[in-house]
Amino acid sequence: xxxxxxxxxxxxxxxxxxxxxxxxxxxxxxxxxxxxxxxxxxxxxxxxxxxxxxxxxxxxxxxxxxxxxxxxxxxxxxxxxxxxxxxxxxxxxxxxxxxxxxxxxxxxxxxxxxxxxxxxxxxxxxxxxxxxxxxxxxxxxxxxxxxxxxxxxxxxxxxxxxx
Length: 163
Fold this sequence. Notes:
Elements: H1 8-18, H2 21-25, E1 28-32, E2 36-41, H3 55-77, E3 81-92, E4 100-105, H4 110-120, E5 122-133, E6 136-149
Antiparallel strand pairs: 1-2, 2-4, 3-6, 4-5, 5-6
C-alpha cells in the first residue's frame, strides 16, 4: 500500500478507509514534520466505565501512529509496501482523562531500516510511541513493525492474433 501523497490528508483517508475502527475512534492525523507524527482522538469516543480512556483505545492509537508514520515514509520513498505490527510492549503509567494525544518519532536507526527495505524488499523496525498528557507520557509502546515491498503486478502480454 502506498498513499497517493505523503500528506496528513492522505493518511487520514487511509486510516478511515483501510482501518474503519479508526473513524469510530475519531482518530485524527494532526502534525507530521518528517520525523514525528502526532495523532489524536477524543476521549468521548474512547471512554471506559471509569470515565478514563479505554486501554484498548490507547493501544489502537499508538499502534496506528506507528503504522501511519511508516506509511508516510514509505510514500516519500516511492515504494509500495505492506506494513504489519509484529509485536510490542505496552506500559500504562497514568490514566488518561482528556483527549488522547499520541506521538511517534523515528528512531536513530531509521536510515538503516530504509536502506534495507530498498535493498532487500523487507525490513523491520522498532518504533517508540507515547500517549501524552500535558507532555508527560501516560502510556508508552515499543512496537516492532515489519514492512515488505509489494511485488509489482505483471503486465499481461497481449496474445498475437491468429489468422
